[in-house]
Amino acid sequence: MNKNVASTVHKNANGANNWIKFMNALPPPTSNLNNAVVQKPEKKDIEVVAIDCEMVGIHPDGQGNMLARVSIVNSKGETIYDKFVKPTEQVTDYRTPVSGIRPEDIEHGEVFIKVKKEVTQILRNKLLVGHALEHDLRVLRISHPKHMIRDTSTYWQFKQLTEGRTPGLKRLTLHFLGASIQEGEHSSVQDAKAALQLYMLARKDWELLLKKRRSRPRNGNKPHGSQRKHK
After folding, report:
1. Phi and psi (nearest 5°) for 44?
2. Phi then psi for 72, rounded to 5 degrees?
């Protein structure tokens, strides 16, 4: 393990009251994380949710993405939303070996407009966790305040595992949580839980880093206390 990453994990372990319980509750490799336990945010903290979407292919080449399933878990790792979505365009590739989506899953799914409205309501005023969230938000056709997003694919400590390249959720989960996911067909519930656990693992240092960045003066300006008064 990279020395800096190892240091961060060690500091998080020492600083978390429920760290031992958290690690003992993690499922072994090949488990689906369904029974995993995550650290609960303190009452004063903003509410946290994690999201993941499964997509199917559209357009003649099947390279376009269309929402097929969306899953959301709360800060306890409990599934609070999980729906298949009725297609709005012709599906040319169900991507079943990866997406786990079959024609019968979405044939009678919820209509997209309703799903979009429900998801938007759930995410409002919440800290949103996920992996490569730009793809999920794009197929949902929604936006979320940048300062309220925690994307495990962009966190610098996680990227050190891949020497600065974007790490896959599967690799991060195996390396930091000791659990295997995405063995065959993916599950959006499982992936959302994995992203949530990764965030909770790095949360203390992650939030401290963001706090420091927000406190820096912008545009090269010096802090007010050091500015000279012009006569």
Report:
1. -75, -15
2. -130, 135
Is this prediction's pTM over 0.90? no
What are the pLDDT digits (tens) for 122-137? 999 999 999 999 999 9
pLDDT tens digits, one per residue of 157-173: 999 999 889 999 999 99
Q: How many residues does the chain have?
A: 231
| Residue 13 structure tokens | 């372990």
In the chain, the largest separation of any two C-alpha atoms, in whole Å, equals 75
The DSSP annotation for 8-60 comes to HHHHHHHH-TTHHHHHHHSPPTT--STT---PPPPTTSPPEEEEEEEEEEEST
List the CATH code of the domain at 48-214: 3.30.420.10
Residues 147, 126 contacting (CB under 8 angstroms): no
How do strand 48-58 and strand 127-130 relate by DSSP bridges? parallel
Strand 91-93 and strand 48-58: the pairing is: antiparallel
Please tell me the distance from the alpha carbon of residue 151 to that of residue 226, in angstroms, as a whole number. Answer: 35
Domain residue spans of the chain: 48-214
